[in-house]
Amino acid sequence: MRTLLAGIYFLFWWCWNFLYEQRLLIPKRVHATVVSVGNLTVGGTGKTPFWDCQPRI
Questions:
Q1: pLDDT in tens, 1-57
Q2: How is the chain split into domains, by residue range?
Q3: What is the residue-wise DSSP string for the chain?
Q4: Is the full-model pTM beyond 0.70?
Q5: Predicted pLDDT at 51
Q6: How far apart are the first and last CA of the chain?
Q7: Predicted local distance difference test score (pLDDT) of residue 21
Q8: How far is CA 24 from CA 15, 16, 20, 27, 29, in A?
């Protein structure tokens, strides 16, 4: 089961990158300040409490 899910994830990731490389998907620009907190970790790493302590931008 894990191998199947890893294969599906890899296929999705590969297609996503291919579409960007071929310029079929274009990144969108936003006219706002963007702050990234954390990474792809789903939960339990303390991102929400950390962000709650930050001043509003």
A1: 889 999 999 999 999 999 999 999 998 889 988 877 766 666 667 777 777 777 765
A2: 2-52
A3: -HHHHHHHHHHHHHHHHHHHHTTSS-PPP-SS-----S-S--SSSSHHHHHHTSPP-
A4: no
A5: 74
A6: 43
A7: 95
A8: 11, 10, 6, 10, 16
What is the pLDDT, as a whole number, of residue 1?
A: 81
Which residue has tokens 């969108």?
Answer: 28
Count CB-CB contacts under 10 A for residue 26.
Answer: 8
Nearest-angstrom CA–CA distance, 48 and 37: 9
What is the C-alpha to C-alpha distance for residues 37 and 15, in angstroms, rounded to an integer? 26
